[in-house]
Known about the structure:
By secondary structure, this protein is mainly α. The protein has a domain at 29-70. Helices cover 61% and strands 0% of the residues. The chain contains four helices and no strands. The chain is elongated, with a radius of gyration of 18 Å. The N and C termini lie far apart (41 Å). The model has no long low-confidence stretch (mean pLDDT 80).
Amino acid sequence: MVNYYLTILVFGQSPPKSPAGQGRKRKLDTGKMKALRNAGWSYEKIADEMGCSAGTVWNYFNKQEEKKDE
């Protein structure tokens, strides 16, 4: 939030918005995630190992479950 206000003060305008869907996406090693989960690791522990949030791990596995149901 500080950067937002700093940009307004320095440049006199709001910073440009990034296009939808072009955030900080990066590839995760999903094979490693699956292996860790199969080894009994929690979402939180996997997230720490992978350098992402537990929500990201949870979303990945839930999307996999949805694909199996189809």
